[in-house]
Amino acid sequence: MESATPVSIPSSAESAGRPVYAGLPDHFDGMVGSDGRPHDCCAPLARYLGAVGLDGLRALQHDAELSLLNQGITFTVYADDRGTEKIFPLDVVPRIITASRWAKLEEGLVQRLLAMNLFLRDLYGEQHILRDGVVPTELVVNSPHFCRAMVGVRAPGDVFVHVSGTDLIVDENGEFFVLEDNLRVPSGVSYVLENRIVMSRVLPDLMQHYRVRPVDRYPQLLLDSLRSVSTADNPVVAVLTPGIYNAAYFEHSFLAAQMGVQLVEGRDLVVDDDVVYMKTTAGLRRVDVIYRRIDDDFLDPIAFRPDSVLGVPGVMNAYRAGNVALANAPGNGVADDKAMYSYVPRIIRYYLDQEEILPQIHTYLCREPADRSYVLEHLEELVLKPSDGSGGYGLLVGSAASRAQLEDARAAVRAAPHRFIAQPIQKLSTLPTLCDEGGPGLAPRHVDLRPFAVYGAGDRIDVLPGGLTRVALREGSLIVNSSQGGGSKDTWVLHDEGSPTRA
Amino acid sequence: MLSRIARGLYQMGSLVERATNVARILEVNHKMNLERASVDEANVWLAISESFGCGLAQPTEEALYGELVLSERHPWSVKHCVEAARDEGRAMREHISEEMWLHLNRIHLQLPSVTFDEILRMGRSEFNRQVEVFADAFHGLADDTMIRGESWSFLRIGKLVERATMICRILEIKRKTLSLAPGTEGAPLDVHQWQALLRSLSGYEPYRRAYDARILPERVLEFVLKRSDFPRSLTFTLVELGEALRHVAGSSVVQLRLQGYVERLIDELHLIDARELVRSGSFEGELRSLERSCREIGPQVELAYFTSLRPDSAPIAAAPGAALVPQQ
To answer: B250 and A244 in contact by Cβ < 8 A?
Structure first.
């Protein structure tokens, strides 16, 4: 079979005078096996890369980046003084996921979301799961994300998790693992859509060869699911953004434009008699569903932080009165907390009476004495994470930390154990990525995957076939967050198994 | 359309127009100064300083440039207007065209570094011309690249309201240095002043083409106030404004009343007899009244479109229409 040869693609490594791409020892590579031969589904991609050559690949990469820059597809980096707008680098080598592999992933995601949504409904309702002792009550009530204003609230359409973006990794055996649930305001879907537009321009022939499932239905799926939870006849949807200085502003305006709905700021909305209106040139217009891209804390200065100028005073009262739907529901953070993560298999079993389809990573809860002492002793082998953090901030990779950093981390754990969890350092899988440093060509870089799902009334869940593959562009780095120097790849979910022989 | 977006576009149009008008006023006075015969220099600048609330006791040209061109805070400063317009543009990129955004960004990259010394080096006229060209090109781009929707209309309304107010303001500044006493018309200085008035509205050449080279006060007033085919006459500006308002009008009482207000103002202008104005010396009072009426338009636009009154809410003014009749 033609695919059974090592990949002759531009790379820093050489074999018998030819550049050969190889993965890292003891890590799974998405393109080649440990023998250096491409996986079946990747054979056409490998051939294509070989034919294009390094110069060709660099030219394609340049085209892709220019295209993103010209369109102003940028995000904002907070900790950066020089020019806060950056493009999210897109690597031109796509990630390929076959239909059968995706089917299992999709099934696992749907299961997990159903359980999480039931969990939230229960937590803010009858709290059976706490009374049955499956999840510790104090973990819930002490969570900074447990939202008292939500207690007793029936979410419209019984939906809490309208949009989710679950972070997955592939372990050394090539299996997908859930790394993190994002049930609050997950971002990144606009890059999935934009990356695809760019890729279909720079790699049309390859994309035509593979039968790639489209992602451009997402705005329609999102709009349908947002409208489905409202009882209004012709519900008016608005996207609520904190404003142009927010890191994800591009995504907010992109989604609003794609859905054909208004992009509003807090000051555009007003609540009168528990009904939400937007201020327009033709007077006040009622809003039925708010897809809010503002954190809970800032959503309503009356209910939450009084100093918030981004939110809408009174919107929580309107929500509680059932006059407006908020997506996602406030208070979801209690369920995607990194400490709650370790209970998810039990949550799935409790509500669905099923075993979890997608495995997840063993997690040490520093609040438990036994786990804590293990973490303090084995910190070099672990990743330490703040249990309420996100975006890769405050994360410590034990093996890469200095002695002083480890000591500081230990002190922090001892001081506030409930604020931390730890997990074994994962051997994140790699994918060939075009690199400048360390010699020319493709080199293995660590990746994760964030697929997006929308949840509508009647427990209808649509998982977008694709997702954001984030890549740690620095050699050896495990941190893929865009705010920490990560890039992205287009994720091609195939209609079939990507037969290596099809021309 | 969201009120915030509409207001942003309105302000953008108004800020750009304001920048060019300030540059025009400074330019004309600069030219006059070059040829000054008996006018006390301070007087020219004093009239401007007073009109724009600069609060300068002994205004010099440099001090005025500091306030009206280079200040980052003075609400009429060219720099402030351009920067504020660019900020609005950044917040509403989806509502203006790419070309307009690039144009705003270009001047934003050039302007902050400009100092008075640099203006002197390149020549005041050259600098003022650049500001005028920027604004003309901006409005031209808007007309050539924007969909004729609400966005375009609000941008235009902002420009036209600002222009109407500024025409009155320019007349008012000039009035202080103009003499209307019978017999003095045609004196070299006066001719010069009337010319300057026309120039600051890009009207000198059109005037000459419409009439002839003789500068007569009543003709100039007729031209600047009533001419229906000259883009910077007050009548033309208000007619365009009325059109733009009709384009975005809904059924709300305040919106309809605003239209009526502008139409009545146009009627008022129609009835003005320029010759009579000059002869009777009622020029000053009439001008004041016009300026007051034009200044009323802005707040009414705010009320009608940006405060989001509910369509069913009661009229705002105590006596309907009372405050909306142009004052005599």
So the answer is: no
CB-based contact, A135 to chain B, within 8 Å? no
Task: For residue B314, give both structure tokens.
Answer: 């009661």
Of residues B255, B201, B240, the one with CA closest to residue B223: B201
Collapsing DSSP states into helix, strand and coil, what is residue B266? helix
Asked if residue A184 lies in contact with residue A296, where contact means CB atoms within 8 angstroms, the answer is: yes
For residue A56, the surrounding DSSP H or E stretch is helix A43-70
How do A237-240 and A262-264 pair as beta strands? parallel
Angle at A404 between CA A402 and CA A406, to 5 degrees: 70
Partner residues linked to A493 by β-bridges: A97
- How far, in Å, CA of B323 to CA of B49, rounded? 30
Cα of B91 to nearest chain A Cα, Å: 6
Interface probe with B: pick from A263, A281, A284, A312, most Cβ of B within 10 Å = A281
Ramachandran angles phi, psi of A462, nearest 5°:
-115, 120
Three-class secondary structure of residue A352 per DSSP: helix
| Interior angle at CA A73, CA A70 and CA A74, nearest 5 | 115
Q: Which of A218, A253, A329, A240 is nearest to A287 (CA)?
A: A240
Domain ranges, ordered by start, for chain B: 3-324
Residue type (1 letter), B245: L
Q: Closest partner residue to B308 among A243, A264, A283, by Cβ?
A: A283
CA distance B285 to chain A (A): 36
The amino acid sitting at A258 is Q
What are the φ/ψ torsions at residue A482 (nearest 5 degrees)?
A: -60, -30
Q: Do A281 and B90 touch (CB under 8 A)?
A: no
pLDDT of chain A, 503 residues: tens digit per residue: 333 345 566 665 555 555 678 889 889 999 999 888 899 999 999 999 988 888 888 899 988 888 877 766 666 555 444 345 667 789 999 999 999 999 999 999 999 999 999 999 999 999 999 999 999 998 898 888 999 999 999 999 999 999 999 999 999 999 999 999 999 999 999 999 999 999 998 999 999 899 999 999 999 999 999 999 999 999 999 999 998 888 888 899 899 989 999 999 999 999 999 999 999 998 899 999 999 999 999 999 988 888 878 899 999 999 999 999 999 999 999 999 888 999 999 999 999 999 999 999 999 999 889 999 999 999 999 999 887 665 556 788 888 889 999 999 999 999 989 889 999 988 889 999 998 755 668 889 999 999 999 999 999 999 999 999 999 888 877 777 766 668 899 999 999 887 755 54
- Of the candidates B294, B200, B201, the one whose C-alpha atom is nearest the C-alpha of residue B241 is B294
Q: Which domains does chain A have, with CATH numbers?
A: 2-105+167-212+432-493 (no CATH), 217-327 (3.40.50.11290), 364-424 (3.30.1490.270)
> Whole-angstrom Cα distance, residue A420 to residue A414?
10
Distances (CA, A) of A325 to A218, A242, A253, A456, B15: 20, 18, 20, 12, 39
Contacts of A281 in chain B (CB under 8 A): 1-3, 6, 150, 154, 248, 250, 305-306
Chain B residues touching A275 at Cβ < 8 A? none
Quick one: CA dihedral A169, A171, A176, A178, positive or negative?
A: negative
